[in-house]
Amino acid sequence: MSEDKNKKVDMESGSHMKAIMEDTKDDPNFYGGNIEAETKAPYRDPIRGAAQTRIAHMKYPWDLVVRAYEQRFPKNPTFFPYINNTEILEKKETETTKYEVRRVSIDPGMPGWLKSLTRIHDFVFVEKSTIDWKNKKMTLYTENETLSTYAHVSEDCTYQQHPDNPNWTYKEQTAYYKLKVRLFGIEGRIEQYGGYMFIERARDALLQEKKQVEALKESERLQKQQK
User: Fold this and answer.
1) How far is CA 176 from CA 1, 50, 211, in A?
2) Do residues 102 and 126 make contact, with C-beta atoms less than 8 angstroms apart?
3) Do residues 22 and 41 make contact, with C-beta atoms less than 8 angstroms apart?
4) Are 172 and 54 in contact (CB under 8 A)?
């Protein structure tokens, strides 16, 4: 391949990355209705590194969305087949709150030869979740265990009753990427790529989340009919 062709590929790749990483709204048709989502422009947190935020307006009640979320664990092969295992590390519950710390193992989504090369067959992270049933708010904090020597990857996510409509749910999640090692001056591009991957995964996960909420809604409807 000539030098000009190499340059053209790099420029096309860079422009594609830039288009994805800018402040944009998702195509509502992607979710088939009932969800509006957008990606905010990336920024850098002075402590936690490169940051990327996603916001979703889910036209489902908060209680239903949270009940569906809890059904992901320990495994949910129908909607979240990449979750391999879940281990509960800590659990506290009162009449109005529920706190859990779980270690989750997921499939890293790499081809078999790359798993063998890197010896990474599972990607493990720890998630801390707090559900406030009274105030209709669930907060999640997640950080990686796998490759933690080389990078710190963390995420804040909040589900709360929508401020504009009590029958909707407002979801906001921010992912942070910070490398702990120097890699020939390309750390910024790697962190940027991490943001790009977060957007792609978040879109797919939101679609699966919608399907799971719809399935739970239908299941509960049928149960009520049988009573």
Assistant:
1) 36, 5, 27
2) yes
3) yes
4) yes
Q: Which long-range contacts (CB under 8 A, 24 or more apart) does 110-118 make?
A: none
Q: Is the dihedral of CA 29, 51, 20, 196 positive or negative?
A: negative
What is the per-residue pLDDT across 60-77, written as a single tens digit (0 to 9) for each? Answer: 999 999 999 999 998 888
Identity (one letter) of the amino acid at 146? Answer: T
Q: Which residue has the tokens 């990474």?
A: 120
CB atoms under 10 Å from CB of 152, counted, come to 17
User: 123-152, pLDDT tens digit by residue?
Assistant: 899 999 999 999 999 999 999 887 778 788
C-beta of residue 108 within 8 angstroms of C-beta of residue 120: yes
Query: Structure tokens of 132?
Result: 């406030």
pLDDT at 19 over 80: no
Please state whether the peptide bond connecting residue 42 to the residue before it is cis, i.e. omega within 30 degrees of 0.
no
| Separation CA 161–CA 169 (nearest Å) | 5
d(CA 135, CA 131): 9
Please say whether the beta carbons of 162 and 172 come within 8 A: no
Rounded CA-CA distance 148/190 in Å is 15
- Two structure tokens written together for 34: 């009932």
pLDDT in tens, 185-212: 655 666 666 666 778 888 888 999 999 9
Q: End-to-end CA distance of the chain, in Å?
A: 69
